[in-house]
Write a structure and sequence with these properties.
The complex is a heterodimer of chains A (about 400) and B (about 220). By secondary structure, chain A is mostly helical. Helix content of chain A is about 60%, strand content about 5%. Chain B has 2 domains: about 60 residues, Arc Repressor Mutant, subunit A, CATH 1.10.10; about 130 residues, Arc Repressor Mutant, subunit A (Orthogonal Bundle). Chain B is built from 9 helices and 6 strands; from the N terminus they run αβααββαβαααββαα. Classes of the chains: A mainly alpha (about 400), B mainly alpha (about 220).
């Protein structure tokens, strides 16, 4: 017979005895009672190694393969019943330990070895169930109960999971209360299992569960806050729809609550003292590298600095022929309808005799135009003649300025 | 940063009206979270009739008056409250819009990340959301003459950053993080709700408890 046929028959056997298998799996810790009614079931299942027994007097158990198959197929159910699973697994270990003790009394060495092997495997399963149950809670935390958009359902699910975690905690506490350290019963093979592996696993699971529980409660708190805030936003939105122009007021409140207490900002800006040499020096350092805006408009915003003198002495300005010349040139322009350029004037009037450079002359002339009163100032249009410096991006070389008397409509 | 300069920086921020939270000023927030430092800052501020207070969720520190009893201070607070209330309707509209664009409809909270592109995508797939954006930009603090939703949204984000509700993060200029100024706004809204007797919607959880939720 081919292996395919064998496999087909094994599956058919599972199907044929489905109800017995399920009863054993769900209700009897995987045990099929050795009764006359179950004779056929036991015979068929053991034939395909789907069930086994220690000796002819013992009950028959579902094989590990069948249990794994059902575990895998019903993972969703298992998650819900993981607490019961841990509890059952621990009861199963205790039952096996009882059988081991009996086997020792009867000096049945083969049974004893089989049971030790079975106990090791069952304790391993118990540890795995505990880890799996806690890992399942971690899944809830990372997902944030994101399976639904409905915040109320998320809160309800979160509360339910906290309850499950609490139940699991109770079960683990029960394990701790059992004297697991003495369960090995002087069996050297089981000593490591009950003195090391199981206690360590329980301690680790307890720690993880505490952390998980804390996280779940934080998540629940956040969800509840979100629900309250969402309701608050909705309530305001509805109010604005129902009452357009709604404007809350606290004018009627004599004692103001802390929640509206927000202090008016205080402007914290400092001004340098230009009469303090140290501050002047700092300012000078700050201005290194700055350049004037090439539009030339900023010169118009230069503040007028008024110097107040404490004494009553009359302030006598020093003589400045360059300044006088600039004033005269501007007066002449205002009286005429023409135009001029600073460089032309510099050349025509031989202003180098004043021991100034052309640049200084242009600057003086520009300053004087800006110093005019508003009425005269608006009569003169000033245009800088400059060219950009390709090697210094953003810089322009100013080499002349053109002044023109503005022809107002009324004057034409 | 030395303790003195840290103290000075925190005080300057508070006096200038800034909200200090983990998103905007993480370092200063941690500094103020230490009771000793908070005491030191308050000792200085009290000389200016100021003190530090926190939002109810403790996510933001802000500057408040130490003594609110004088008529002048009360007048200032009332004036500020009026200003808040003027901007409140558009802010509520924005919160509702942002919430509708979120996958889980969660309200905006401090630390939440918002991607302009995500909102734009949500709007492109929903005319209702587009209409809400149009309404939002029609008047008030978010008013915009832009035509395309993209430009309107950009304007809204710009304004929210200027108001201190969002912080621009990353290099794309399209990612934002919500600041704890929202916590302050929620506190204010909760006070207004109680003061103006605004009714909250029905608590669905009570119904669920009564009917028994399927597990």
């Amino acid at each position: 017979m081919s292996s395919r046929d064998e496999a087909q028959k094994a599956i058919k056997t599972i199907h044929k005895h489905m109800e017995h298998i399920l009863d054993a799996y769900y209700d009897n810790h995987g045990v099929i009672p050795d009764t006359i009614e179950n004779e056929d079931v036991i015979r068929d299942l053991t034939k395909y190694r789907l069930a086994w027994r220690i000796d002819s007097y013992d009950d028959v158990r579902l094989s590990r393969d069948i249990k794994r198959l059902l575990d895998g197929a019903t993972s969703s159910y298992r998650r819900r019943s993981s607490n019961a699973q841990i509890s059952d697994a621990f009861d199963h270990v205790k039952m096996l330990l009882g059988q081991l003790s009996e086997a020792r009394k009867r000096s049945k060495e083969r049974d004893r070895l089989n049971l030790i092997s079975e106990i090791e495997e069952s304790v391993g399963e118990l540890i795995e169930y505990m880890r799996s149950a806690i890992g399942h809670f971690t899944h809830y935390i990372t997902s944030g109960f994101a399976f639904t958009n409905d915040i109320d359902l998320r809160i309800a699910e979160n509360e339910r999971v906290i309850e499950m975690a609490s139940d699991l905690n109770t079960i683990i506490e029960e394990l701790v209360s059992e004297d697991i350290y003495s369960m090995h019963g002087s069996n050297s093979e089981l000593r490591k299992m009950f003195l090391n592996y199981l206690p360590q696993a329980i301690i680790k699971c307890t720690e993880d569960l505490n952390h998980t529980n804390h996280q779940l409660r934080i998540l629940l708190n956040t969800l509840k806050q979100n629900r309250e805030t969402a309701r608050l936003i909705d309530a305001f939105k509805q109010r604005y729809i129902n009452d357009p122009g709604f404007l809350p007021s606290i004018d009627d409140k004599l004692i103001l609550p802390d929640v509206v207490n927000v202090a008016e900002p205080i402007l914290l800006s400092g001004f340098a003292d230009i009469y303090d040499l140290s501050q002047e020096e700092l300012l000078a350092n700050l201005t290194v590298g700055l350049h004037a805006d090439d539009s030339g408009s900023e010169t118009e915003e230069t503040p007028n600095i008024t110097v107040e003198h404490d004494d009553q002495e009359e302030f006598i300005p020093e003589e400045n022929p360059t300044l006088d010349t600039a004033v005269a040139v501007i007066d002449e322009l205002l009286d005429s309808d023409g135009q001029l350029t600073a460089l032309d004037v510099f050349v025509d009037l031989d202003l180098d005799v004043l021991d100034i450079t052309a640049e200084e002359w242009i600057l003086t002339l520009v300053n004087q135009v800006h110093a005019l009163d508003a009425h005269d100032r608006e009569k003169i249009e000033m245009q800088f003649i400059e060219e950009s410096q390709p090697q210094y991006s953003g810089f322009s070389h100013l080499y002349d300025v053109e002044l023109r008397k503005v022809q107002h409509v009324g004057q034409i | 940063m030395s303790l003195h300069s840290e103290n000075s920086a925190v005080i300057q921020l508070l006096l200038s009206g800034e909200f200090i939270c983990e998103v905007t000023h993480e370092h200063h927030y941690n500094y103020l979270s230490d009771g000793q430092n908070l005491k030191r800052v308050n000792e200085f501020l009290v000389t200016l009739n100021r003190r530090v207070r926190q939002t109810s969720d403790r996510k933001a520190f802000l500057c408040a008056y130490a003594d609110m009893d004088s008529a002048e201070i009360k007048q200032k607070i009332r004036g500020q409250f009026k200003e808040i209330c003027t901007d409140l309707e558009p802010l509520v509209r924005w919160l509702s819009l942002a919430q509708a664009c979120q996958p889980h409809r969660d309200p905006l909270r401090s630390g939440d990340l918002i991607n302009e592109v995500d909102l734009l995508n949500a709007m492109n797939s929903s005319q209702t959301l587009c209409d809400q954006l149009d309404e939002l930009c029609r008047r008030g603090v978010f008013s915009s003459s832009a035509g395309a939703p993209k430009d309107k949204l950009k304007q809204v984000f710009k304004q929210l950053v200027a108001l201190g509700f969002l912080k621009n993060i990353g290099h794309s200029g399209m990612q934002y993080q919500a600041t704890a100024k929202w916590s302050w706004l929620y506190d204010t809204m909760d006070f207004i709700r109680a003061h103006e007797d605004i009714e909250l919607g029905k608590d669905e959880s009570l119904n669920n408890v009564q009917s028994g939720l399927p597990l």
